[in-house]
Amino acid sequence: MQSKNIFLSLIFLGLSLQITSAQKVEKRLDSLILTGFGNKNEPGGVFLASKKGKIIYRKAFGKANLELDSDMTPDHVFQIGSMTKQFTAVAILMLEQQRKLSVNDAVSKYIKDYPSGGKITIHHLLTHTSGIKDFTKMKALSTIAQKEMKPEMMVDFFKNEPVDFAPGEKFEYNNSGYVVLGYIIELVSGQTYEDFIKKNIFEKAGMNHSYYATDRQLIPKRASGYHQKEHGFVNKTVISFSVPFSSGSLMSTVDDLLKWQQALNQNILLNPSETKKAFQKYTLNNGEEFTYGYGWHLKDINGTPDREHGGSIFGFKSMGVYIPDEDIYVIGLSNCDCHSPTEITRNMAKIVLQAGKK
């Protein structure tokens, strides 16, 4: 009887320590986030942290809409900007898995008249090593920013610009490459990029609150986007989402992005060999390794390898960090491009990682 009581006491002690530890982590995360998202009357954000698929932190801060004075909730939908590139990269690998293309194929196989398209491969586009001109750095961008652009028109907009370097010569982050990838997805699949992502990724992963961005369609729980000016906040600049297209036009929630990460972990979307291609480091022509796979930066947090990517588009910023060794995923979404979740999200991942090692 006495040994049973000791056993129960040990169980209760263990549970008590776990609860205390979880509360300490929550307080540290709260304190960290409030440094950048502490004003309840400003645009805000949503942050989520999970470990081994279990949510350990999920909170909203600030306002989802200033004009309606509506508070942010963890369910709100945000534009995720360049986190879109993860979905574009996986879509390409899905088509490779279906043997409809190869990442070693030349761009000219699909876009016949692309300048130097015989030397630029899909792999170069995926890894930002193509050397083609990034359309976001072109002065003429303002002339098309609010026009409805077909993918072919977007490619035509930048394809004849002088290249910045020879394919494979260096790594330089490039939005144009991912627009070309979106166009190739459409040409190979026979579907629009929007339909391909919806049917092959969102629906398979159960991401019921993720969308190709639109200002016309009604999106339940959509967070409004803002800029901050000297005199205060203003509504985000209007752009045509056909311009960023497959480089930055998706919308999602923190819960759906956790489903996305789990779908990748569980090989729901890709087999292990294709998945591995997204998360391995590659080398330049001179043999030098760089820290980008297909759609993810491959870095580390305190020496522990991670996969991460942020996004920035008018009125919104996003950041996601995944630590594969510990199955830790942290995501931060902001509805003002004045409030960056990047460092906060990385520091959240550090806190969760440290707590797990104690």
Automatic annotation (TrEMBL):
Q: Any transmembrane segments, and where?
A: none
- Limits of the Beta-lactamase-related domain: 39-338
Short name of one Pfam family for this protein?
Beta-lactamase
- InterPro entries per UniProt: AmpC-like, Beta-lactam-related, Beta-lactam/transpept-like
Coiled-coil parts of chain: none
Q: What is this protein called?
A: Beta-lactamase family protein
Which species expresses this protein natively? Chryseobacterium endalhagicum
